[in-house]
Model the fold of this input.
Amino acid sequence: MLIIVLMYICICNAITERQVKAAVEGGAHTLSQLQAELGVASCCGTCADTAMDYLPGGQYGSRGTAASQPSGLATLPTEHTTVPAYRAVSASLI
Done:
């Protein structure tokens, strides 16, 4: 069974990490260029910072330190941890 994992960068426009990486590899060097090509950060804008991380010089960009890591996989926890629901809710109210 083949499982494909997609990391969405922009939920509003269903833009994936693969699409952003392809646009950057194709020559996009600014957020404006990503917006023009893909429509990323053109709705609510929440994804703008994440999209910019993939640009050259960004966290995942060609000069970033994490560019060679598999997308999302290197940051996943290695052990199962649980937090009681009442703690998560009460912490968010503080």
Remarks:
- Residues 64-78 have pLDDT under 50 and may be disordered.
